[in-house]
Amino acid sequence: MSAADAPGPVLAPPPAGERSAGAPLLEVDGLRVTLVARGRQVHAVDGLSYRVAAGQTVAIIGESGSGKTVSSRAVMGLLPPSARVEGHVRFAGVDLVGLPERELRRRRAVDLAIVLQDPARSLDPTMRIGPQITEAIRAHLPLSRRAARERAIELLGRVRIPEPRRRYDDYPHQLSGGMRQRVVIAAALSCNPKLLIADEATTALDVTTQAQIMHLLVELQAELGMALVLISHDLGLAATYTDEVVVMYAGRTMEHAPTRELFHNVRSPYTKALLGAIPRLDRPPHDRLPVVQGRPPDLTRRMQGCPFHLRCPSAAERCAAERPPEVVDPPGHRFACFFPHGEGNLP
Ligand SMILES: Nc1ncnc2c1ncn2[C@@H]1O[C@H](COP(=O)(O)OP(=O)(O)OP(=O)(O)O)[C@@H](O)[C@H]1O
Ligand code: SF4
Ligand SMILES: [Mg+2]
C-alpha cells in the first residue's frame, strides 16, 4: 500500500445485524430474468426477492454465474433490450419494471448508483479524474461548472483521496488501484444516490485496500443514509459488513437470512458447501471461491428439481424431481431445501 493510499480515520462499522431497518427503499419481488445467448434462452435469475431499507446493507453472494450481476443490472434497468424481466423492482414504492426508458434513466441517474468491479472500465483513461466527476454532476444536477467542480473536490476528499484539489487534475493511471476505486465511488456518490449497488467493488484489490474501501462504503452509507446492496463471492465480506445475506445459486435463492442468523444457523447444504470452500490462507487473498465440487447446471434448461442436486451431499431422489419450496424457519430465515441442516421444521 502506498503512503498516499493510507486511509484517514474511519468509523468502525456497526456490527452486522444491529442496524434497524425502516421502510424498505428497494423491494425486489419474485424477480425473473431471461437472457438470450447464441440463440438460446438463459434463465439467469429465477425468483429473487429481497428488501433493503435506507442505512441497511444486504449482501448477495454466490459462485460465478449464479445471477448476481444480472439481478443487479435488472434493478438498475441496465440489461440488453432482448432481456425478459418479470416480477417487481419497487424503488420508493414505484415499480421500475416496465417504466418508460426516459423515466428509468432519470431515476438511475439521480437515485440509483452502481460501482463495478473494474475501475478501468468505469473511468475514462484519457480524461482527468476530477472533470469526470464534474461532468457527471453537471449532467444531472443544476450546478454551475465552478460549483460542480467544488463538489467534485469535496467528494474526492470524502472518499479520502489525499490533497483532493491537487489530485483533481490527475489522470487515472497516476493513481493506485485503490485510489481509482475511490474515485469511482466518488463519482457514484456524486448525485447523492439513495441506493448504491456495489458489484464486486473491491474484488480486484489487495486485502488491506479492500478493507479500507469496505469501511469507507459502510461509513459513507451510514453518513448519507443510503441503502447498500453488496454483491460478492466473498463470504467473509458479507459476514463482516452486512445486515442480511441472500445466497444465490443458478439464479435461485438458496438461503436468505439476517447475517448473524445465517452464519450461526446454516440451513442450506449449498451455503454449507460455500462455507467449506472458503479460501485457505495459502491461496491468493480474495481469490474466487474455489468451486464447490462439480459444475453449476446449464441455465439454458428449465430445471425441474433443486439446482444443486447433482453436487449436493444431502441430495435424495426427490431433489432431482421437485423444486424445493421456500421454508421459513426460524422466523426471518428462508431457505429452499428438502433436507436442511440444523433443527426445525422440515418441509
Ligand atoms: N448479456 C448476457 N447475455 C446472455 N447471458 C448472460 C449475459 N450476462 C450474463 N449471462 C449469463 O447469466 C448467468 C448469470 O450471470 P451473472 O453475470 O449474473 O453471474 P454472477 O453471479 O454475477 O457471476 P460472477 O461472480 O462471475 O460475476 C450466467 O450463466 C451468464 O453466462
Ligand atoms: S433440496 Fe436436496 S439437493 Fe437441494 S440443497 Fe436440499 S438436499 Fe441438496
Ligand atoms: Mg458478476
What this model shows, in words?
The structure is a single chain. The protein is α/β, with parallel strands linked by helices. Among the domains are: 119-192, no CATH class; 252-336, no CATH class. It is 31% helix and 22% strand. The chain has helices at residues 68-76, 101-110, 119-122, 129-140, 145-158, 164-167, 177-188, 207-224, 235-241, 259-264, 269-276, 317-321; strands at 24-37, 40-53, 57-61, 84-91, 94-95, 112-115, 195-199, 227-232, 244-249, 252-258, 326-328, 334-336. The protein has an eight-stranded mixed beta sheet with strand order 6-7-8-3-9-10-12-11, with helices on both faces. A four-stranded antiparallel beta sheet has the order 2-1-4-5, with helices on one face. The longest helix is centred in the middle third of the chain and has 18 residues, at 207-224. Iron/sulfur cluster is lined by residues 268-270, 306, 308-309, 312, 314-315, 319, 324, 337-339. Adenosine-5'-triphosphate (ATP) binds at residues 35, 37, 42, 44, 62, 64-70, 80, 233, 299.
Q: Could you tell me how far the N terminus lies from the C terminus, measured between alpha carbons in angstroms?
A: 50 Å
Largest sheet: 8 strands, mixed
If you compute it from the alpha carbons, what radius of gyration comes out, rounded to the nearest whole angstrom?
A: 21 Å
Helical content stands at 25-40%
Strands of the biggest beta sheet: in what spatial order? 6-7-8-3-9-10-12-11
Structural category is: alpha/beta
Listing every helix as H and every strand as E from the N terminus to the C terminus, the arrangement reads EEEHEEHEHHHHHEHEHEEHHHEE
Bound molecules: adenosine-5'-triphosphate, iron/sulfur cluster, magnesium ion
Low-confidence stretches: 1-20, 280-290
Global shape = globular
Number of strands: 12
> Average pLDDT across residues?
85
**Oligomer classification:** single chain
Strand content: 15-25%
Number of helices: 12
